[in-house]
Amino acid sequence: MEEATEIEKNFETLFKQHYQQLCSYAFTFLKDAESSEDVVQELFIKIWEKQKLEIGATQLKYYLFTAVRNNCITRLQKNKKNYFEELKDEDATDEMKIFLEKNEEAAQPKELIAKAMELLPPKCREVFLLSRLSGHTYMQIAESLGISVKTVENQMGKAIRLMKAFAKENNIYAAMLCFIFFEKNLSQAIGVFINNTFLN
């Protein structure tokens, strides 16, 4: 009984720590909040059934994000949609904007960040979110996406250049934008901010 209780506690902790981040990541593929939650919920059900809680914390987080990515691609393929065409849609963040409009008091900074994210090419945005949102290393991102570490570095550099240029051109909340997104030691704060921006 004590062992079962411990497993339940570990599962609850895992769910609270990663659920919103995983939903946000799934949304970058599916562009639908309900479908994104379905994918993440199905993953947690499988974890509960298979009791994969003995994996180390770092490995488990890597497993979660990789599984969500693969499940999203599978879902898109089942719906007879081309994965790469889906990622190229210019209106990929339309539903993100809907999330932002729910909180008018913080609309301006959130809208700025949403627009900055829109500037990123699909693969560039995916690499950026894996790094800043999930805290993956460049090596982990490279392995997950099947690309080289050098490509990951190039995509991250491109993302930062585009977002800095956007902040400079608009001259609005530029310091805030750079502070949140470009200070590497703030990855935890970045994750919380992105969750609040896209899911609240």
Q: Compute the separation of the termini in Å.
A: 37 Å
- Work out the number of β strands: 0
Beta content: under 5%
Low confidence ranges: 87-107, 172-176, 182-200
Oligomer status:
single chain
CATH topology of the largest domain: Arc Repressor Mutant, subunit A
In the CATH scheme, the class of the largest domain would be Mainly Alpha
What's the gyration radius in Å?
Answer: 17 Å
Largest sheet: none
Overall mean pLDDT: 70
Shape: globular
User: Considering the protein shown, what is the CATH homologous superfamily of the largest domain?
Assistant: Winged helix-like DNA-binding domain superfamily/Winged helix DNA-binding domain
Structural class: mainly alpha
- Can you tell me the number of structural domains? 2
Number of helices: 11
**N-to-C SSE series?**
HHHHHHHHHHH
Protein architecture, described:
This protein is mostly helical. It has 2 domains: 1-89; 91-200, Orthogonal Bundle (Arc Repressor Mutant, subunit A). It has 11 helices and no strands. It is globular, with a radius of gyration of 17 Å.
Quick structural gist:
With about 200 residues, this protein is mainly α.
Write the layout of secondary structure elements.
Elements (H helix, E strand, L loop, with lengths): L1 H29 L2 H18 L6 H22 L4 H6 L5 H8 L5 H12 L3 H11 L5 H8 L3 H22 L3 H9 L4 H13 L1
Helix pairs in contact: 1-2, 1-3, 1-11, 2-3, 5-6, 7-9, 8-9, 9-10
